[in-house]
């Protein structure tokens, strides 16, 4: 199973095992990672799963789609590496993916 690493704004680190095919948000919520809420259940309508994909992983996760870009426009503290974790599908290629979590979600 791929491992996803979440790092809270205060540096607290959470390494979780994720199932291939689920979203990064589902892996976080299923493992009680603080700072990832996923209010909309992964429908790309709330931005409560906003995270910052480490630069080393940006190419591997790909670019956000149009719906995600529009939703990110309303999120707080958006950066060039901002993504909605509900829109990133877990695959073996993402084993070790690191996502940092914004302080605005705590």
Number of domains: 1
Number of helices: 3
> Which shape, going by the Cα principal axes?
globular
**Terminal-residue CA separation:** 28 Å
Largest sheet composition: 5 strands, mixed
Strand order of the largest sheet: 2-1-5-3-4
* The CATH architecture: Roll
Mind telling me the CATH class? Alpha Beta
Give helix % range. Answer: 10-25%
What's the β-strand tally? 5
What would CATH call the homologous superfamily?
A: Beta-grasp domain
Structure class: alpha+beta
Any idea what the radius of gyration is? 12 Å
Uncertain segments: none
Written description of the protein model:
The structure is a single chain. The chain has 106 residues and is of the alpha+beta class. Helix content is 17%, strand content 20%. It has helices at residues 24-30, 58-61, 66-72; strands at residues 3-7, 13-17, 50-53, 82-84, 97-100. Strands 2-1-5-3-4 form a five-stranded mixed sheet. A hairpin with a 5-residue loop joins strand 1 (3-7) and strand 2 (13-17). It starts with a strand and ends in a 6-residue tail after the last strand. The mean pLDDT is 96.
What does this entry show, briefly?
The protein has 106 residues and is α+β, with helices and mostly antiparallel strands.
How are the secondary structure elements laid out?
Elements: E1 3-7, E2 13-17, H1 24-30, E3 50-53, H2 58-61, H3 66-72, E4 82-84, E5 97-100
Parallel strand pairs: 1-5
Antiparallel strand pairs: 1-2, 3-4, 3-5
């Amino acid at each position: 199973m791929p491992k996803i690493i979440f790092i809270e704004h205060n540096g607290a680190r959470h390494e979780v095992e994720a199932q291939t095919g689920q979203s990064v948000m589902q892996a976080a919520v299923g493992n009680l990672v603080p700072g990832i809420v996923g209010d909309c259940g992964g429908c790309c309508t709330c931005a409560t799963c906003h995270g910052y994909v480490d630069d080393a992983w940006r190419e591997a996760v790909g670019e956000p789609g149009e719906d995600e870009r529009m939703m990110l426009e309303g999120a707080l503290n958006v950066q060039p590496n901002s993504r909605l974790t509900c829109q990133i599908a877990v695959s073996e290629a993402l084993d070790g993916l690191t996502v940092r979590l914004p302080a605005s979600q705590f």
